[in-house]
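#onboarding

Welcome to the new folks! Below is a worked example of what a typical request in this channel looks like: someone posts a single protein sequence, and someone else replies with the predicted structure as tokens. Don't worry about understanding the tokens yet, we'll cover that in week two.

Example request:
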Amino acid sequence: MGKRILIVDDDELVLMAMRELLKSQNYEVLTFSRGSEALKKIDQEALDLMILDIVMPEMDGFELCKKIRETARGRNTPILFLSAKNQEEDQKRGLEVGANLFISKPINPQRLLALIADILG
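Example response:
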């Protein structure tokens, strides 16, 4: 298997679409709809990239990102926000809590794949 990518989004259709898109490029994909579930997995396994939504129940993406950066495994893993929330203050806050990149939905799938490939080297 290729690089391991974790995706956290509360929209099941987004998770399914992202999973299929990334698997077609030989990425290993783990998907979660809640931040708490993702945090457990991050503690257990090494990942190459994390893609987070902002608006989610129980814990938003900003809080999740901050918590990920406090973990040993998540401290240096690239984090990309992929969200419909695209105001300048959202982007600024995303970078402040530790994201490497902030991308607005919707995004062209080929552009997303190119950005991911660039992040992963």
